């Protein structure tokens, strides 16, 4: 299982306006190992949401069976406990990778607590930092992930995240050879 969510990223100088602007932080966290992929974008859309999943799966080197998400419009058009209407583009991207979307119940953040705590911790780490380009901010986040987040001993599991991911990686589904062909909805 993977859990996904958005948060607030750091302030980055926007290339068009030259002013500092807040970025969006996308986090995908694996349920067993707590290994996370953190990506920064300027704005969100249904296509961006789908592309971030594809990029995260590629970085992990495999795909989970289910993806637990909030009921945000990029992923879920109509929230419902039993039969939620999933955004067609997002649904097709997950189908291409062999994963299933599992939306949370409305106002039930405890269902995806692993990614919620990961988003909060990342936001605290990035709080007050400013970057000149989004690439600089992403490079900082990648180094932090590699040097701190993956090497830490997780409080619940009492094991190193990287070691647990090494155990989990063989259980991820293989990536398809072809990338997704995107369409407008």
What does this structure look like?
This protein has 185 residues and is an alpha/beta fold. Helices cover 34% and strands 24% of the residues. The protein has helices spanning 46-60, 88-97, 113-126, 134-149, 161-168, and strands spanning 2-13, 20-30, 36-41, 66-69, 76-78, 85-86, 100-103, 130-131. The strands form two sheets. Strands 1, 2, 3, 4, 7 and 8 form a six-stranded mixed β-sheet that branches. Strands 5-6 form a two-stranded antiparallel sheet. α1 packs parallel to α2 (88-97). The radius of gyration is 16 Å and the shape is globular. It starts with a strand and ends in a 17-residue tail after the last helix. The mean pLDDT is 92.
Q: Quick summary of this structure?
A:
The protein is an alpha/beta fold and 185 residues long. The protein has five helices and eight strands, in the order βββαβββαβαβαα.
């Amino acid at each position: 299982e993977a859990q996904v969510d958005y948060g607030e990223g750091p302030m980055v100088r926007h290339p068009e306006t030259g002013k500092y602007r807040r970025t969006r932080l996308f986090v995908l966290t694996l349920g067993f190992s707590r290994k996370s992929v953190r990506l920064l974008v300027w704005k969100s859309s249904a296509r961006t949401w789908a592309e971030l999943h594809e990029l995260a799966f590629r970085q992990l080197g495999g795909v989970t069976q289910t993806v637990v998400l909030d009921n945000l419009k990029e992923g879920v058009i109509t929230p419902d406990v039993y039969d939620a209407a999933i955004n067609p583009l997002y649904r097709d991207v997950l189908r291409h990778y062999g994963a299933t979307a599992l939306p949370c119940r409305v106002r039930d953040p405890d269902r995806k607590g692993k990614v919620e705590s990961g988003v909060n911790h990342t936001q605290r780490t990035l709080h007050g930092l400013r970057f000149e380009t989004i690439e600089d901010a992403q490079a900082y986040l990648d180094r932090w992930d590699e040097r701190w987040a993956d090497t830490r001993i997780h409080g619940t599991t009492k094991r190193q995240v990287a070691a647990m991911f090494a155990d989990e990686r063989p259980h991820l589904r293989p990536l398809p050879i072809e990338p997704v062909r995107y369409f407008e909805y």
